[in-house]
Design goal:
By secondary structure, the protein is α+β, with helices and mostly antiparallel strands. It has two domains: 3-61; 67-179, H-NOX domain (Alpha-Beta Complex). It is built from eight helices and four strands, in the order αααααααββαββ. It has helices spanning 3-17, 19-28, 45-59, 63-81, 83-87, 92-97, 99-110, 140-154, and strands spanning 118-120, 129-134, 158-164, 172-179. Strands 1-2-4-3 form a four-stranded antiparallel β-sheet. Helix 1 crosses helix 2 (19-28), helix 2 (19-28) crosses helix 3 and helix 4 packs across helix 8. 28% of the residues are buried. The structure holds protoporphyrin IX containing FE (HEM).
């Protein structure tokens, strides 16, 4: 997993919960490479999972809520660094429809070693969007945070239904967006 995802995560933890919690979760990740993460590095995604679990223990907040908040935090970074993907899209449904075949394809060109999830878009009623997230990594709640932040960013009157389709593993989920 890209180092920038780790550095964003640790920035969020430091800002919201302080340096003591940040140190504690870095230690929980196993002390590999002395806990030093750089934006241009690549690290085992299991270190992220270990840090997120430890953060949940340290703060007594549900893991899912923390991953959603993390997705919302990363979204702000995406809007700053990859602005054109946002200005090219006419709204939430248009933007989210472009992730699999365009945005993550462009991301892969920039970072050939990126570990990206897959999205499929099953047929649905006009005005709605159904997208199914699948990954070897349990980041469905992180994806949910990105989807929720997208809805806020574009401000379209939509409601989101999230269904776990991974039996609680967090490796796949169905997102249904419908007019409010
Ligand atoms: C401008 C928009 C976006 C950019 C530039 C972008 C880029 C990236 C990058 C660089 C990674 C890290 C890959 C790695 O760690 O190796 C990533 C991962 C991920 N992206 Fe995107 N992304 C965008 C939008 C979205 C949106 C809107 C969603 C959700 C619907 C999404 C879902 C994910 C998820 C869940 C991961 C974590 C890896 C996994 O679950 O397997 N992305 N993306």
């Amino acid at each position: 997993m890209k180092g920038m995802i780790f550095t964003e995560f640790l920035d969020m933890v430091g800002e919201r919960f302080g340096l003591a919690v940040k140190d504690r979760i870095i230690t929980a990740a196993g002390g590999a490479h002395d806990g030093a993460y750089t934006a241009v590095g690549n690290y085992d995604h299991r270190e992220m999972v270990a840090m997120a679990l430890e953060l949940s223990r340290a703060t007594a907040l549900p893991l899912r809520d923390l991953l959603i908040a993390f997705g919302e935090h990363v979204f702000v970074m995406f809007t700053r660094h990859y602005g054109r993907f946002f200005t090219e899209a006419s709204g939430t449904v248009d933007f989210l429809s472009r992730i699999e075949d365009y945005i993550h394809v462009e991301v892969r060109k920039l970072y050939p070693d990126a570990e990206l999830p897959s999205f499929t878009y099953p047929p649905c009623a006009a005005g709605q969007l159904v997208m199914e997230y699948r990954s070897p990594r349990p980041m469905a709640a992180f994806a949910e945070g990105l989807v929720r932040a997208t809805m806020k960013h574009f401000g379209d009157p939509l409601v989101l239904l999230v269904e776990d389709i991974s039996g609680g593993a967090g490796t796949s989920a169905r997102f249904t967006l419908a007019p409010a």
